[in-house]
Amino acid sequence: MTPDCKPRRPADGTHLDENRLRTALDLAAAGLPVLPLRVGKVPFGNCRACKGNACGGRPNMKTAGPCECASVCHAWAAATTDPCVLTSLAWVHAWRKAAAVAYHPGGAGLTVVDLDDAAAVAWAREALPATRTVPTTRGEHWIYQGTMRSVNDVRDGVDIKSLMSYARWLGPGTGTMTDLPDAVRALPVKKPSKVRPARPVVTVPALAGGGECRHRTPAYLDRGIAMAEQRITEARSAVHTTVYRTFLAVLSTHGRCGCLTDAHVTRLFTAAQAKGESPRHCTDAWTNARTALGV
Question: Within 13 A of 6's CA, how many CA atoms are on the CB side?
């Protein structure tokens, strides 16, 4: 830690876990962009200025680094190696509530194959070249040198975390890290028969009787979509359920009058995917919500 970057103490005197912050600083010094996670292995919600991505997020959300607002915003894109950011007052407020340290694998030139259970680990030992491994609660992380796009559920119990994603720091692991193999790069295209569009084309019936839809007031609709984005972004746990219930709430209010557009749906899907949901899960949740409401 540099002399100018000592942790700022919160005015309310709440406890700061020095060990967790020390771990984050050590990882950052080693070149791993890090960020704090809340209970439930989820990032902190955006600050007021960034709620609903009102600030526009980071440019294209494709590079790691602190948000310009200086808070821990935009999930994986907040990850940083800057000790002055990690020990700033806004970040210290997050660290004192944090349950874990996470890192952006892609920002460090790495790919994590997240094996969620014993069956997935057994498959990896047969199908993938050996590399550095880190035990997790139920399975293992296999870490390779190299980057690729992040994709969840590439097969049962297997997620890929690299670019535009985050992984929990669970220790250095054991074994020699090897180059990212073609066998891992090929995993995202494993199920061609089940490929679905990233988002559905939304078609809803017109308002009965041809009357003017009260939801077409831009402020009313935009506020509803922003609140839905915020609810997804701030989910502490049960993200799948939160996404589905949020989609259900949006459709129950706006789904029968023709006011929703692809742009609105994209905003909801983007918020869900920032929490780790795959395009397939988003599409399924949206379709199931529409079916449940008959729209």
Answer: 3
Paired with 158 in beta bridges are 115, 155
Cα Rg of the chain, angstroms: 21
Say how far residue 69 (Cα) sits from the centre of its chain.
Answer: 19
pLDDT tens digits, one per residue of 145-165: 999 999 988 998 999 999 989
Phi, psi of 44 (to 5 degrees): -75, 150
Q: How many helices (H) and strands (E) does the chain have?
A: 9, 8
Nearest Cα to 220, choosing from 259, 272, 263? 259
Interhelix angle 239-254/218-233, rounded to 10 degrees, is 170
In whole angstroms, how far apart are CA 34 and each of 26, 29, 172? 10, 10, 14
Distance CA 228, CA 120 (A): 34
φ, ψ of residue 129 to 5 degrees: the values are -70, 145
CA distance 183 to 8: 46
Residue type present at position 70: A
Residue pair 249/293 in contact by the 8 Å Cβ criterion: no
Q: For the whole model, what pTM was predicted? A: 0.62
Q: Which of 240, 209, 218, 108 is nearest to 167 (CA)?
A: 108
- Over residues 81-127, the pLDDT tens digits come to 999 999 998 899 899 999 999 999 999 999 999 999 999 999 999 99
Element (H, E) at 135: strand 132-135
- Token code pair at residue 82: 């800057």
Q: Tell the burial category of 172 from Cβ atoms under 10 Å away from its Cβ (0-12, 13-18, 19+).
A: exposed
Please identify which residue in the block is written with the tokens 């200025």.
49
